Amino acid sequence: MIVRSHHRRRAVAAAAALASAALIAVASCSSDSSDSSDSADTAAATPTASGATSAGSVQAACEAELTVNATNFPGIDPDAPAPTADDLRAFAAAIEPAATALRANLPAELTGQADKLIAVVNGAKQGKPFDLDSSGLTEAGHAVDAWMYDHCGYPKLDVTNDAGTLTGVPASVTAGPVAIRFTNTGDPNRAGFILLVGKAKDGATATAADVAAGRTDFQQIADVVTVSQPVGDEPGYTITRIPAGHYILDSPLGTPPDFGAGQAIAELDAH
């Protein structure tokens, strides 16, 4: 039991680091609707152009952000070896086109936030690691994500943790791009630290109920596709591509390293 709790805390800590690292407040750590409420739309709407030069530029910004989200940021996993200069240069080469497109297509009031990502990329091109706390990426990501949630026109998954119960989770969503918002309400002692969205591993038979009951661990049966982490009293935001499959949503309740309040669990299918 102690070992299981230790591994779960490590998984949550790693996911939290990922959430802090990317401009979109998340770096993907994955291996790889039929909507029953207004929380998730079944088809993407036409992106609005508010705050940008054209609807096309909004779509370009959203596509760039999806690419940023799917890029692993070297040096953010506390259990992994420190990245080499070659690792950092390879990262920069992979993400630079998307980072450049993101900045070019965001509204003017957000280009300064994108510049924080550009600065990280420019340093990585020279083989220089970046520091999460001083990079400003967390604050930048929150500002950009909130705008993306409102303007990309992707189906929305608006999840609320109400003192340990996840609401706003439909039975199914359409596979593809989705915009996620995660909000806490109710007892602050049972606030969700982070929302982990995990795709069930091939062959996994355990359910969300098994995770909630402590019969299995989240990371043993699911690969994290994305995370959404609230910032203070404000919701967490992210956009990501959701492949078809079965998903478990897990939000540890409390603050690291104490998640003694348990976890809020839900599940859905993407078709």
Summarize the structure in short.
By secondary structure, this protein is an alpha+beta fold. It has eight helices and nine strands.
Structure description:
The protein is of the alpha+beta class and 271 residues long. The chain contains eight helices and nine strands. The protein has a five-stranded mixed beta sheet with strand order 3-9-8-5-6. Strands 2-1-4-7 form a four-stranded mixed beta sheet. It starts with a helix and ends with a strand.
Whole-number total of structural domains: 2
Helix content: 25-40%
Strand order of the largest sheet: 3-9-8-5-6
Low-confidence runs: 1-53
Write down the Rg.
Answer: 18 Å
Please name the CATH architecture of the largest domain: Sandwich
Shape: globular
CATH topology of the largest domain: Immunoglobulin-like
- Tell me the total number of β-strands: 9
Report mean pLDDT, rounded to a whole number: 81
> What is the CATH level 1 assignment of the largest domain?
Mainly Beta
Distance between the termini: 35 Å
Portion in strands:
15-25%
The major beta sheet can be summarized as: 5 strands, mixed
